[in-house]
Here is the input.
Amino acid sequence: MELIELSVAKREGTGKGPARRLRAENAIPGIVYGAKTEPVKVSIDVHSFDKVIRENGTTGLFFDLNIQGEASKMVMLKEIQMDPFGLRYMHIDFHEIDMDAKVSIVVPVETEGVSAGVKEGGMLQIIRRDLEVICKPKDTPESVKLDISALEIGDSIHVADIDLGAEIEIPFDTNFTVVTIVPPESGSDEGEGEEEAAVAEEAAAE
Here is the structure.
Protein backbone atom coordinates (compact mmCIF):
# COMPACT_ATOMS: atom_id res chain seq x y z
CA MET A 1 0.00 0.00 0.00
CA GLU A 2 1.51 3.31 -1.12
CA LEU A 3 0.74 6.40 0.97
CA ILE A 4 0.53 9.79 -0.75
CA GLU A 5 1.36 12.76 1.45
CA LEU A 6 -1.19 15.55 1.38
CA SER A 7 -1.51 18.59 3.65
CA VAL A 8 -4.93 20.09 4.37
CA ALA A 9 -6.31 22.84 6.61
CA LYS A 10 -9.20 22.64 9.03
CA ARG A 11 -12.32 24.64 8.20
CA GLU A 12 -15.11 25.88 10.41
CA GLY A 13 -17.98 27.07 8.24
CA THR A 14 -20.58 24.79 6.68
CA GLY A 15 -23.19 25.30 4.00
CA LYS A 16 -23.18 26.67 0.48
CA GLY A 17 -21.82 30.13 1.30
CA PRO A 18 -18.56 29.11 3.01
CA ALA A 19 -18.06 26.30 0.48
CA ARG A 20 -18.48 28.76 -2.40
CA ARG A 21 -15.93 31.12 -0.84
CA LEU A 22 -13.45 28.25 -0.43
CA ARG A 23 -13.73 27.31 -4.09
CA ALA A 24 -13.24 30.94 -5.07
CA GLU A 25 -9.93 30.78 -3.16
CA ASN A 26 -8.83 27.66 -5.11
CA ALA A 27 -9.66 25.32 -2.25
CA ILE A 28 -11.97 22.31 -2.05
CA PRO A 29 -14.23 21.65 0.95
CA GLY A 30 -13.85 18.15 2.30
CA ILE A 31 -14.44 15.90 5.28
CA VAL A 32 -12.48 13.17 7.06
CA TYR A 33 -14.57 10.57 8.86
CA GLY A 34 -14.11 7.16 10.38
CA ALA A 35 -15.91 4.60 12.51
CA LYS A 36 -13.93 5.43 15.64
CA THR A 37 -13.36 9.20 15.28
CA GLU A 38 -15.38 12.39 15.03
CA PRO A 39 -15.64 13.86 11.51
CA VAL A 40 -13.17 16.63 10.72
CA LYS A 41 -14.04 19.30 8.14
CA VAL A 42 -11.05 20.20 5.97
CA SER A 43 -10.01 22.49 3.14
CA ILE A 44 -7.84 21.05 0.36
CA ASP A 45 -5.67 23.08 -2.00
CA VAL A 46 -7.06 22.44 -5.47
CA HIS A 47 -3.67 22.52 -7.24
CA SER A 48 -2.09 19.99 -4.85
CA PHE A 49 -5.05 17.64 -5.08
CA ASP A 50 -5.36 17.94 -8.85
CA LYS A 51 -1.66 17.07 -9.22
CA VAL A 52 -2.23 13.88 -7.21
CA ILE A 53 -5.21 12.90 -9.37
CA ARG A 54 -3.39 13.60 -12.64
CA GLU A 55 -0.45 11.44 -11.54
CA ASN A 56 -2.36 8.60 -9.84
CA GLY A 57 -5.94 8.54 -11.11
CA THR A 58 -8.87 8.34 -8.72
CA THR A 59 -9.04 4.67 -7.69
CA GLY A 60 -7.24 2.93 -4.85
CA LEU A 61 -5.67 6.06 -3.35
CA PHE A 62 -4.39 6.09 0.24
CA PHE A 63 -3.11 9.25 1.91
CA ASP A 64 -0.94 10.25 4.83
CA LEU A 65 -3.16 13.26 5.52
CA ASN A 66 -1.46 16.06 7.43
CA ILE A 67 -4.24 18.07 9.05
CA GLN A 68 -3.29 21.52 10.31
CA GLY A 69 -3.18 21.50 14.12
CA GLU A 70 -3.81 17.76 14.42
CA ALA A 71 -1.91 14.50 14.16
CA SER A 72 -1.73 13.10 10.66
CA LYS A 73 -4.29 10.49 9.68
CA MET A 74 -4.03 7.53 7.34
CA VAL A 75 -7.04 7.79 5.04
CA MET A 76 -8.41 6.49 1.75
CA LEU A 77 -10.10 8.57 -0.91
CA LYS A 78 -13.78 7.66 -0.66
CA GLU A 79 -15.61 10.07 -2.97
CA ILE A 80 -14.99 13.02 -5.29
CA GLN A 81 -17.97 15.23 -6.11
CA MET A 82 -17.63 17.24 -9.32
CA ASP A 83 -19.75 19.97 -10.88
CA PRO A 84 -22.28 18.89 -13.54
CA PHE A 85 -19.71 19.47 -16.30
CA GLY A 86 -16.96 17.49 -14.56
CA LEU A 87 -14.62 20.47 -14.60
CA ARG A 88 -14.52 21.55 -10.96
CA TYR A 89 -14.06 19.75 -7.65
CA MET A 90 -17.03 20.40 -5.37
CA HIS A 91 -16.35 18.20 -2.33
CA ILE A 92 -13.93 15.47 -1.25
CA ASP A 93 -14.63 12.64 1.22
CA PHE A 94 -11.78 10.84 3.00
CA HIS A 95 -12.28 7.77 5.18
CA GLU A 96 -9.90 7.15 8.06
CA ILE A 97 -8.35 3.71 7.85
CA ASP A 98 -8.61 1.06 10.53
CA MET A 99 -5.60 -1.09 9.68
CA ASP A 100 -7.25 -4.15 11.27
CA ALA A 101 -10.54 -3.83 9.36
CA LYS A 102 -11.15 -4.93 5.79
CA VAL A 103 -12.13 -2.27 3.25
CA SER A 104 -13.77 -2.39 -0.16
CA ILE A 105 -11.77 -0.70 -2.89
CA VAL A 106 -11.71 -0.66 -6.69
CA VAL A 107 -8.40 -1.50 -8.40
CA PRO A 108 -7.50 -1.59 -12.11
CA VAL A 109 -7.11 -4.76 -14.17
CA GLU A 110 -3.78 -5.31 -15.98
CA THR A 111 -2.89 -8.06 -18.43
CA GLU A 112 0.52 -9.73 -18.63
CA GLY A 113 2.04 -11.59 -21.56
CA VAL A 114 0.85 -11.98 -25.16
CA SER A 115 -2.07 -14.32 -25.77
CA ALA A 116 -1.50 -17.35 -28.00
CA GLY A 117 -4.80 -16.48 -29.63
CA VAL A 118 -3.67 -12.94 -30.39
CA LYS A 119 -0.56 -14.36 -32.10
CA GLU A 120 -2.93 -16.28 -34.35
CA GLY A 121 -4.84 -13.14 -35.28
CA GLY A 122 -7.41 -12.94 -32.48
CA MET A 123 -8.20 -9.79 -30.53
CA LEU A 124 -7.91 -9.20 -26.79
CA GLN A 125 -11.01 -7.65 -25.26
CA ILE A 126 -10.91 -6.39 -21.68
CA ILE A 127 -14.52 -6.51 -20.50
CA ARG A 128 -13.83 -5.24 -16.96
CA ARG A 129 -11.09 -2.67 -16.61
CA ASP A 130 -11.34 -2.55 -12.82
CA LEU A 131 -12.53 -4.86 -10.06
CA GLU A 132 -13.72 -4.45 -6.50
CA VAL A 133 -11.57 -6.17 -3.87
CA ILE A 134 -12.09 -6.58 -0.13
CA CYS A 135 -9.03 -6.78 2.08
CA LYS A 136 -7.10 -5.11 4.86
CA PRO A 137 -5.40 -1.87 3.75
CA LYS A 138 -1.91 -3.36 3.97
CA ASP A 139 -2.91 -6.12 1.54
CA THR A 140 -4.44 -3.85 -1.10
CA PRO A 141 -2.95 -4.66 -4.54
CA GLU A 142 -2.03 -1.85 -6.91
CA SER A 143 -3.78 -3.79 -9.66
CA VAL A 144 -5.25 -7.19 -10.53
CA LYS A 145 -2.66 -8.74 -12.86
CA LEU A 146 -3.91 -11.42 -15.25
CA ASP A 147 -1.56 -13.68 -17.23
CA ILE A 148 -3.19 -14.09 -20.65
CA SER A 149 -0.32 -15.85 -22.44
CA ALA A 150 -2.06 -19.26 -22.50
CA LEU A 151 -5.40 -17.97 -23.80
CA GLU A 152 -6.44 -19.27 -27.23
CA ILE A 153 -9.10 -17.75 -29.50
CA GLY A 154 -12.45 -18.13 -27.73
CA ASP A 155 -10.88 -18.46 -24.27
CA SER A 156 -11.82 -16.16 -21.41
CA ILE A 157 -10.86 -15.41 -17.84
CA HIS A 158 -13.88 -15.17 -15.54
CA VAL A 159 -13.91 -13.56 -12.12
CA ALA A 160 -14.08 -16.98 -10.40
CA ASP A 161 -10.80 -17.93 -12.11
CA ILE A 162 -8.89 -15.16 -10.34
CA ASP A 163 -7.03 -16.08 -7.15
CA LEU A 164 -5.42 -13.18 -5.29
CA GLY A 165 -4.60 -15.20 -2.19
CA ALA A 166 -6.38 -15.88 1.08
CA GLU A 167 -6.22 -12.28 2.26
CA ILE A 168 -7.96 -10.68 -0.75
CA GLU A 169 -11.55 -11.36 -1.81
CA ILE A 170 -13.23 -10.34 -5.07
CA PRO A 171 -16.98 -10.19 -4.38
CA PHE A 172 -19.35 -11.25 -7.16
CA ASP A 173 -22.89 -12.58 -7.62
CA THR A 174 -22.42 -13.92 -11.17
CA ASN A 175 -19.27 -15.38 -12.73
CA PHE A 176 -18.76 -12.55 -15.19
CA THR A 177 -16.07 -12.36 -17.90
CA VAL A 178 -13.07 -10.15 -17.22
CA VAL A 179 -11.03 -10.66 -20.39
CA THR A 180 -11.59 -12.72 -23.54
CA ILE A 181 -9.88 -13.47 -26.87
CA VAL A 182 -12.28 -12.99 -29.79
CA PRO A 183 -11.84 -14.37 -33.34
CA PRO A 184 -10.04 -12.28 -35.99
CA GLU A 185 -12.10 -9.80 -37.98
CA SER A 186 -13.55 -11.07 -41.26
CA GLY A 187 -15.95 -9.90 -43.95
CA SER A 188 -17.06 -6.33 -44.57
CA ASP A 189 -16.48 -3.50 -42.15
CA GLU A 190 -20.15 -3.54 -41.19
CA GLY A 191 -20.09 -7.30 -40.58
CA GLU A 192 -16.93 -6.98 -38.56
CA GLY A 193 -18.47 -4.41 -36.29
CA GLU A 194 -21.59 -6.49 -35.76
CA GLU A 195 -19.58 -9.64 -35.06
CA GLU A 196 -17.32 -7.86 -32.58
CA ALA A 197 -20.30 -6.31 -30.79
CA ALA A 198 -22.04 -9.70 -30.60
CA VAL A 199 -18.96 -11.36 -29.12
CA ALA A 200 -18.57 -8.59 -26.56
CA GLU A 201 -22.24 -8.83 -25.56
CA GLU A 202 -21.99 -12.62 -25.23
CA ALA A 203 -18.84 -12.34 -23.15
CA ALA A 204 -20.40 -9.71 -20.89
CA ALA A 205 -23.49 -11.89 -20.43
CA GLU A 206 -21.30 -14.79 -19.25
